[in-house]
Amino acid sequence: MIDFVHNRRTYFILAGVLVALSVAAMLVSYVTYGQLVRIGIDFKGGSLFSVHFTAPVTEDVIREAFAEEGYTSTIVQQLGDPADNTWQVRTSFATTDQINAVLERLEEITGAVDRNSSVVDTVEATVGAEVARSAAQAAGAAALVVLTFIWFSFRKVPHPLHYGVASVVAMLINVIVAMGFYALMGLLQGWEADALFLTAILTVIGFSVQDIIVVFDRIRENIPRHRGEPFSLIVNRSIMETLHRSLATQLNAMFVMIAILLFGGATLKPFIAVMLVGMLSETFTSMFVAVHIVGLWEERRKSRPARA
Amino acid sequence: MNRKTITSLVLILLLAAVALYLVVPSQHPEWLKRLLVWQPETARSLEFMQGLDLQGGLQLSMVADVPAGQELSVETMRAAAQVVEGRVNALGLSEPVVQVQGTRRIIVELPGIADPEQAIDTIRDTALLEFAEPPAGAGEAELTPGRVVSTTYGMGEDVTPPPGYYKTILIGDALDSAFNTVDETTGQPMVIVRFKAADTQRFYEYTRNNIGRPLCMVLDKTILSCPTIRDAIPNGEAQISGGFTSESAQQLAIQLRYGALPVPLKIESYRAIGPSLGAISVEKSIRAGVVGLLVVFLFMLIYYRLNGLAADLALALYVLLNLLLYKLLPVTLTLPGIAGFLLSAGMAVDANILVFERMKEELRHGRSLARGAEAGFSRAWTSVRDSNLATLLTCAILWFFGNAFAASLVKGFALTLALGTLINMFTALIVTRTFVRVALGLLGEERVRRHPWLLGI
Fold first, then answer.
1. The domain A46-123: what is its CATH number?
2. Residue B336 in contact with partner chain A when CB distance is under 8 A
3. Which residues of B touch A119 (CB under 8 A)?
4. Which one of A136, A170, B201, B427 is separated from B61 by 20 to 30 angstroms, measured CA to CA?
């Protein structure tokens, strides 16, 4: 039997390093863009053009076309494979007339705009603010539901609070790591947080509860079965017993996500990638962090001299 | 193998056959489609519904362009949506969606549209119609059609118009109907407008007090025409005549009819997706799905052997049942929706894995195979229930979040993930259990015991 409890310190340090790196990425992002994770037009408003050209074009030409229509501060990026000739341009909010004018100017200059394979997205700032508000509400609701769920699942174990706190800590680590990854990709690849980013984060939150519950469930079951065993042994036994299941399940979910990353379109890439990172973090925290927090707590309690 | 197992097996196979028939062929008899009574009568079909990101198209969100404090009634927004819908239908698209969202927003979805600009122009033409009193002392120039003017719309009922402003008396939502006809005595083309009963009295009072003075019809702050009030109009029916050709009379009638928006709208967000882009996305998603699921199938088979085979069969049925529900309900498929489905399929085997790991454990403890299997299924139930409940709760939150601002992408993901989770409870537990029982029954307890590799131990 592998002694998971013995290596507890290593896992905690590893978790700490992951969190520190993620926070660092978010801080760099904050210094660079003024946001912990680069915010996309869904939340702050603006326009996003993904234009496909039938022939190679240069960044300067695109920039020029937008500048001629009055959009001087544009962010121009090539999307996917250079051979795809697809470019992404971010501007301030443009009305439908302005979008049309820009696309026509672009066609005039390059003669290679393929509108049938292009996407234009535009959101007014007021809508963005509303979306941001409902996003905050959703996150709040998720936190509340998760806490209630954990409390309900473990209301019959001794010290349900310990399990609750451990689950929340693990969940926070997962969210921080996922956000840190996105912040990093924002710095490296220009990824911006959109509604799907939030969807991924909320999904990670949901899944992390799920994974933790499986391990905790086993501990709950093993406590009466192995009465008299030290708690650390019960924890270790529970991890061992659920290890196969956790790994097999995570692997299957990851197979699917990796397939979407490799073969699916570019649109979903950031969404799936952040979910994958969140899930990797989940696998780690559910087996190597959450349970040990409970274990540590339990040992402290036992080693404390009983009060008279 | 007892009778109960055989019955379940037969039922499962029957279900699989029906699902396979409904999902795979593209042609189904008409009477079958008519059975789908929960779908809207005009659009009953057994096709997959593709979202905007898969077939291309246009999504517009329009908001009432009035001061933030101004209250808008549900009826007003609904009426505005109806007008927009009338315009959209004129485009002749297959499945346009026009929806009121919240208290001041209208969402329009036009799948598969080739020319988004034309569509926007058509929708935007639905302008605000006002009946307005020209400023005192207005001369010929102030009454010329085509002149752009300012009105007191939105300033309140009894406001004194600022200099040069036209005072709004009634707006488009007071209009019941408008049509062009020919004056029987003079043979001149004219337009007849009819007010709703509620506003007939107001119009009567106004006209009675203002005989001999001009009243302007203003469409989107542009004067359409300024006829002179000849008589008090008690029946809520006004004739507009003079200077029309039959074409211009018809055009005005149409503008009045379709321009009768109860509230001005402005486009606040817009998403246009090129149709060929959608086709590429579909192709890529299918490829990703096939590869991802194949790996899952192989993994289960290699890792759990005989049990894995049972799980794979259950997973195949799972995929089939999901696709069937997408057709029947129907579910509009989007890219994140497909991702949600694939993810749920990858996780669908989770319940199986829980059970199989339990079975292995029980066997290692020396219990009999059949007993081990049953114990595995019954013990794993709490874990499966809890973790699936967690997923469903997450989906519910996502759904409400997506609903708050019409993010059909977020909703698509939440819906397919939730559906998958529900179907999973059935396939992973009931279906797999039946298959495992059948396999043990056919092979016999002894034979499996002699070859533990069959269970991957």
1. 3.30.70.3400
2. yes
3. 271-274, 277
4. A136
